[in-house]
Amino acid sequence: RNQIEARGIHDERVLQAFRTTPRHLFVPKDHMAASYEDHPLPIGSGQTISQPYIVALMTEQLALIGKEKVLEIGTGSGYQAAILAQLAAEVHSVERFEILARKARSTLAALHLANVHIHVGDGSMGWPAEAPFDCIIITAAAPEVPQEVLEQLGADGRLIAPVGSRYRQMLELWTRLPNGFEKEEILPVVFVPLMGKLGWQDPNEP
Ligand code: SAM
After folding, report:
1. Buried residues in 6-20 as b, exposed as e (16+ CB within 10 A)
2. With a 6 A CB cut-off, is 149 part of the ligand 1 pocket?
């Protein structure tokens, strides 16, 4: 109520998904006590589970109605995927660390969220084998939104991603139009980097 609703998230389906998703199950035991605080937490492999408000904001921007096929790039703990699973028809999520992917799969299975498919690999190029997607959400900081990933959006598709330098990004919402793409800037944010062929190659690059 205080961290998400009071800060302007009004989509009732999104709020309901947050109310019913046990965030503490996605957080390592030594950080569990802080699960419901509004900040990111470490999940191992140098990665984080994102701040709940930002997860809610990015989710709301996708305006899901329940029929969509969604791609998430950056599974991490699987928490964002669990929220998406309750709001869309099918979710594909890509993670570069096998150990995180495996843990996320088991958490999602324990919650009986069978419509999430977790892939291990470099998601910086999207996931062409499952394209097109109605929505794409990149949950790691990209130097830019790769054209190759935008092209995996179907008609009227929406993509949201933090885009910018390694240490500061702007949340960008892209919409596919009949003759190209439209971009809207939503909020400044800070995410861990999107590594890989179309992301960052060196994690310490500025
Ligand atoms: N959405 C996640 C959650 O709900 O816990 C948080 C994502 S965390 C901020 C970013 C994740 O993106 C990390 O787990 C990181 O390993 C992953 N990542 C970074 N570059 C990637 C790439 N090229 N392909 C797939 N995953 C990547």
Report:
1. eeebebeebbebbee
2. no
Model pLDDT for residues 126-157, shown as the tens digit of each residue: 999 999 999 999 999 999 999 999 999 999 99
Q: Is the pLDDT reported for residue 205 higher than 80?
A: no
Angle at 21 (CA atoms; ends 16, 27), nearest 5 degrees: 145
Rg (CA), the chain: 16
Q: Mean pLDDT throughout 35-59?
A: 96
Q: How far is CA 41 from the centre of its chain?
A: 15
- Strands 169-177 and 180-189, bridge-based pairing: antiparallel
**Does the Cβ of 163 fall within 6 Å of ligand 1?**
no
Enumerate the active-site residues: 50
